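A reminder from the course coordinator: this example appears on the midterm review sheet, so study it carefully.

Given structure:
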C-alpha cells in the first residue's frame, strides 16, 4: 500500500514538474502596445482586406465546429440554429427568452441546454468571425511590434463570454490575418498561438478561415463546410431579371445603340463580336479573343491592328454597354449581391469583385413597387464617386422581347441618350 502511495505521489510530482517546465518555456507576458490612430488604421486595413462591408450585409452563415456543433446563423434576424447530439436550439441572440429548445425533435423547456447552446455559439462563432469583431463595442486596439512587423493587439474589455481576453493578430503583407496569439482566461499559458488558414471567399463576398491549428500539441480545429450567402438578395435580384424580361435578353442575338451621340455599337452576342465606331475609327472587337480584332481608319483596314486602339475600344465597350444592359448582369461571375434599406424599402447593392474595367465598384439599385429598376447610386472609387445617382428611364421593349433603357438623367440634370436602341435576332 505504501509503495502504491509513493508511486502515485511520484507520478504527481513528475506531472507538476512537467507542467512547470512547459509553463516557463512557453508562457509569454501580454505585450503592452500603443492605442490610438495607428492601431485603428491597421485594424481598418485588415477589415478592408476581409471585405467587412460585405460581412455587415451577409444574411446567412453556416459551419460546423470540430465536427460536433452545427450552425446556421441568420445574422440579420439575430437567430442561430445550434445542433449537437440529439439537441437543437433556435437561439435568439438578442432576446434569449424567445429561444426554443428541442431534444429528439420535441420542444422542451431546458435552461441548461439553452445556456450550453449560447456558450457554444459565443466560442465557436469567434473561431469563424473573430477578425470582423475588432471594432466591436468594448474592444481596445493596440499596435505591437512582433518580429519587427506591426501586429494588432485586440483586448475585449467587456462583452462576450470571457471579457478581458486578448488576441495578438499576426498579418501578412496584405494585412490578411495568418494567426493570432492568445491571452485568455481558460488557458493558463499566455501567448499560445493558433493559425487562421485555408481561407475561403464565400458567395456573400466575405473571407472565412476554414481551419485552425493550435501551437499546443498541434491540435486542429476544422470549421467544416463553411458557407456565407445572401439568399434574400438573390431572390430580389431574380425578381429584377424577371421584370426586365431577362430570358428574352439571353436569347437576343444583336444589340444596337449609341452613347451620348459620340460612339455607336452593334453587338453580336452569339459570336462575341462588337462593331465599335467613334470619329473616323471603327473596330471589330472580338470580346473573347481580342487579338483577332480588326481596326479601320476611314473604312480602310489596318494591316496590323493597333493594340492601343483595340484596348480603347474594349474600355469603351465595357463602359457604354454597362449603361445599356447592367440590370441583366446581376448574376455574372465575381458579383456580390446584398440588400440595403433605402427610405424603408429594399434596394439591391451589387458589388463587382473582379472583371470589367474597374473591379471594386458597386451600385445600389433603387426599385419601384414591382422591383423594376428606376435608378441607382454609383460608388466608383477610381472616379471618386460616392453614392452618385443616375436614373434608368425611357425603357423600351425590343423586337426580341427584352427591356432596355434609352436614356439616363444625372443629379446635375445632364441627360445621357443611348440613341436608337434595338434588340433582335
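Designed residues:
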Amino acid at each position: 500500500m505504501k509503495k502504491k502511495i509513493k508511486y502515485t505521489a511520484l507520478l504527481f510530482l513528475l506531472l507538476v514538474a512537467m507542467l512547470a517546465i512547459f509553463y516557463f518555456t512557453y508562457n509569454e507576458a501580454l505585450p503592452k502596445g500603443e492605442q490610438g490612430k495607428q492601431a485603428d488604421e491597421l485594424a481598418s486595413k485588415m477589415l478592408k482586406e476581409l471585405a467587412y462591408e460585405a460581412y455587415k450585409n451577409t444574411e446567412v452563415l453556416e459551419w460546423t465546429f470540430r465536427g460536433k456543433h452545427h450552425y446556421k446563423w441568420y445574422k440579420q434576424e439575430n437567430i442561430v440554429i445550434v445542433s449537437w447530439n440529439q439537441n437543437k436550439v433556435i437561439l435568439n441572440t438578442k432576446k434569449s427568452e424567445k429561444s426554443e429548445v428541442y431534444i429528439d425533435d420535441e420542444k422542451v423547456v431546458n435552461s441548461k441546454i439553452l445556456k450550453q447552446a449560447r456558450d457554444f455559439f459565443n466560442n465557436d462563432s469567434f473561431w469563424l468571425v473573430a477578425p470582423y469583431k475588432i471594432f466591436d463595442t468594448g474592444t481596445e486596439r493596440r499596435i505591437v511590434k512582433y518580429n519587427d512587423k506591426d501586429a494588432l493587439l485586440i483586448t475585449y474589455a467587456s462583452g462576450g463570454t470571457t471579457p478581458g481576453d486578448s488576441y495578438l493578430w499576426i498579418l501578412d503583407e496584405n494585412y490578411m490575418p495568418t494567426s493570432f496569439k492568445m491571452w485568455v482566461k481558460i488557458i493558463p499559458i499566455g501567448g499560445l498561438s493558433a493559425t487562421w488558414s485555408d481561407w475561403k471567399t464565400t458567395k456573400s463576398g466575405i473571407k472565412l478561415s476554414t481551419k485552425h491549428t493550435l501551437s499546443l500539441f498541434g491540435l486542429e480545429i476544422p470549421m467544416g463546410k463553411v458557407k456565407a450567402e445572401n439568399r434574400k438578395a438573390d431572390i430580389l435580384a431574380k425578381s429584377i431579371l424577371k421584370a426586365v424580361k431577362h430570358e428574352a435578353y439571353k436569347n437576343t442575338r444583336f444589340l444596337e445603340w449609341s452613347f451620348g451621340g459620340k460612339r455607336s455599337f452593334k453587338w453580336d452576342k452569339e459570336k462575341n463580336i462588337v462593331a465599335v465606331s467613334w470619329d473616323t475609327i471603327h473596330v471589330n472587337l472580338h470580346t473573347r479573343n481580342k487579338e483577332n480584332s480588326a481596326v479601320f481608319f476611314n473604312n480602310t483596314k489596318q494591316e496590323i491592328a493597333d493594340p492601343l486602339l483595340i484596348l480603347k475600344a474594349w474600355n469603351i465597350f465595357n463602359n457604354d454597354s454597362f449603361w445599356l444592359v447592367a440590370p441583366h448582369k446581376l448574376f455574372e461571375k465575381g458579383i456580390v449581391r446584398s440588400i440595403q434599406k433605402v427610405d424603408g424599402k429594399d434596394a439591391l447593392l451589387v458589388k463587382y469583385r473582379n472583371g470589367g474595367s474597374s473591379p471594386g465598384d458597386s451600385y445600389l439599385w433603387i426599385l419601384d413597387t414591382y422591383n423594376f429598376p428606376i435608378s441607382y447610386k454609383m460608388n466608383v472609387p477610381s472616379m471618386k464617386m460616392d453614392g452618385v445617382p443616375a436614373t434608368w428611364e425611357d425603357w423600351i421593349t425590343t423586337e426580341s422581347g427584352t427591356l432596355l433603357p434609352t436614356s439616363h438623367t444625372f443629379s446635375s440634370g445632364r441627360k445621357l441618350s443611348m440613341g436608337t436602341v434595338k434588340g433582335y435576332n
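Residues 231-424 form a domain with the outer membrane lipoprotein receptor (LolB), chain A fold (CATH 2.50.20). The chain is about 25% helix and 40% strand.
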